Amino acid sequence: MSLKYSVRSIHMINFREFEDVKINLKEGQNFILMRNGYGKTSMLDAIHSIYTGELLTNGIRNGWENISAAKYNNKFTKSDKNFSSVKLEIEINNKNGEAAIWKVWQKWDHKKGENTFQTEVPGEGLEDGWLLPRDFSKKFGGKIAFADLFVFDAEKARENIENQKGEQVEEAFIEITNTSRIYDLVHHERGDMEQLYSDELEKRSLTHLDTASKNYSSWLKKVKKQIKETQEWKTTLTIKINSNRKELKKWEKAYDALGKADEKASKEERRLNKKDRGEKAKQKEKTRELLEYLGNPSNLPNKQWKDAHEIHRLMFVLKIPEGVGRVFFKDLCNSDTCVCGEEMSSKMKKHIEERADEYLEDDTLILVKKMQGIVQENKDGDKGIDIFELKEEIKIIRRNIRKIRDDLIEIRKKFNPKIQEDRKKLTVKIQKMKEEIKKQVEKLEIIESTDVNRIRALKWDKGCLKDSDTLFALNSWENKVDNLMTLERIKKTLEKKVNTTEDLLNLKNGQDLAQIILTMAGDEVRNDYIKIAEEILDESFRKFPVGEGYGLRLNKEKGVIFLDRNEDEQDEASVGMTVAAAYSLVSAMSEVGGISVPLIIDSPTTGCDTVSTAGICDFMWGECHQEIFIIESGERDKIKSSSKILDKKGDSEKILIRREEEPMDGLNPSGPMIVQYNDEDFFNYYSSAWVKGS
Amino acid sequence: MSETQTIQFRFSQEAREYFDKIDKNSTSGKFKIKLQAYWLCAQIGILYNEKSTPPEKKWLVDRFAPPLQGYEDLIRAFAFWRHTKTKNLNPKKEIEMLAALDNFFDENARTKLGKIGMNTFDKHAAGGFEIIRDKIGEETDLASFLLEYLELIENAPEN
Lengths: 694, 159
Known about the structure:
The complex is a heterodimer.
Chain A: E1 3-15, E2 18-24, E3 28-33, H1 40-52, E4 83-93, E5 99-109, E6 114-121, E7 125-128, H2 134-140, H3 144-148, E8 151-153, H4 154-163, H5 166-176, H6 180-187, H7 192-203, H8 209-260, H9 263-293, H10 303-317, H11 326-333, H12 346-356, H13 362-377, H14 387-413, H15 417-448, H16 452-457, H17 474-478, H18 484-543, E9 551-555, E10 559-563, H19 575-592, E11 595-596, E12 599-602, H20 610-620, E13 626-631, H21 633-642, E14 652-661, E15 670-676, H22 679-684
Chain B: H1 13-25, H2 34-47, H3 72-86, H4 94-104, H5 115-135, H6 142-154
């Protein structure tokens, strides 16, 4: 047995009908006798709540939403009713079989409206919260259906069996076999695995993984194809350029060779070409000079610059602006003496103050003064520069170029007609080839360039990729990007996307597979347990006189079903049979769950006749190491008349809970609730021997 | 003191295309920077006292970059002269001239020109370009263009 525990005491303060009642409990059988209406159900609910760690005011069980409306009996208690509490002392064995007492309180602070747990952990003291040991919390923590098996109202248990709630049995099996986590993962819509998957989708800005993945893969395929084609094209183009260059060289050689055929003319042509190149270079240099000199307006020969110079000179002479700026005058206003040493009168100060803003800011003043200085030095422009002289020089150069061109035409006429014709043809061919090579080289540059700025400036990437490499305009790319580097970047981006989506696809497939495996494993474990439980259940049930010849089976939909001698399912069963079935189920579950726990039952023989009661008392009770039965006087009498179980002196604890004064007629009991531990009172209470005040 | 200016010279699209053609086709040289073309236009606008509406945007550059950087004081002085002429300012009147200088220049701007100064430049550049376009017409070679430009300078009015 992995879990064994006993309830040592229940202490209730200001809790429903109980002002301050502590019930001490023993190993073996404990019969708690109390009248109907004295709080049997409340006590049972409190124990159930402490077992599961589910606060009563969480409303898990009906009627506990407002504990502050607890029915304290104000007449009998002077306790502070600002709070209520139920304390359970539980002796729990650890794995080594060593026992320790754990104390758990459920408390209500009515002023604050708080309902909390506190736990006294052995050796560690009091701590907030429900902190029962792991073995215990694993079995009972939050497991209401499971706790219902051991802490129950026989009336309700019977109803459960009769109503055949398959779901509850199923749930109890899942809890008892600790497969609930597996079922959570597999079946709950927002289970951890589902959550993980949807979190990943969100993180990667994807909504429909299948579509996105399909698209990325298909685009990646296309871009890979395009890269391959472009690389092939690059090779073809390189070969073509090389071959064209060879061809061009051949034609140029042929052209030169034609010239050699007429050596004199050819020599002259070469001389003129050289002269032409020289003149053109000269023209370039002079043009550059002219353009630069035109940047200086003082080089202008016009009257206007002279006017401009004169105005600035005049201003300079007139000291406009002054040598000092606005700040100087503002400072002067704050001074007692003028720069000339004269004392500053208020009139003078006022005058300066009024005019200070008319002067320039110091920085503008410096700028203007510097400008005036430079203008003074540049009355006649750059020294020795006359732009019209330059103009004439350029004109002469241009005349020379024209002359050379005319001479070249003339000299070419001197070649013999056949050669002239061939040269003409070759010239056209060479020109065309040069243009073709130029285009091919340009195209090759588009393909090969790795200069990111150039690619972007010349739009060779068609705007496909942004700086982050994460976005691209698919339409532009499909519109044909030729730059290999851009294509590679698109490919890289897509690969990243595909990897991302593949990861997720794998994750999803893995999850689906895990779900199948887990479902199968969970079902298998559960089915094994159900099979074992069914055998124990059936065997246990057949021990009862009422069960003789009958059988019990567990059904997923219907819960517990009764079989007759022919193994046919019975539609109905007697009260005795259903109560016996409930006990048998508890016994089976306890066995299967590997636990030895106290059985706590309210009204344990409800609805049973004497035969069934005898069967329950003789065959079922005593199976657990601790049993707590909460009964009222009528049930006590029924048990006493049906079985010898209550007569066994010393074998069981008999506890009476009653008001201090209870009249024989049962009306108007008074005084505080008290606990008595003696057989005499237990059997006399509301029996024929019961006398007022006894 | 005026606020730091970030405005730039403005040059119309038409003017840019005109000079781009020269840059693309000329065998006798190219403009080093587009501002050179802008200044050639502004210079003609100042000489001819011709102004036109500059484009709203079409920013060019926010300073006198080389090779014009060495002449920037003279260029500003020349433009200021035209400004005083246009506004009929008397260089002997100190207050009048100080106000004009204060408005025309701005040490904090990279061009060292205030709002009025910048506008004066842009308007003359626009006006000057119209003269060039009309009188020189389409020209695709820099040397040929400059020879024609010099004719414009020679024929500029006296005042």
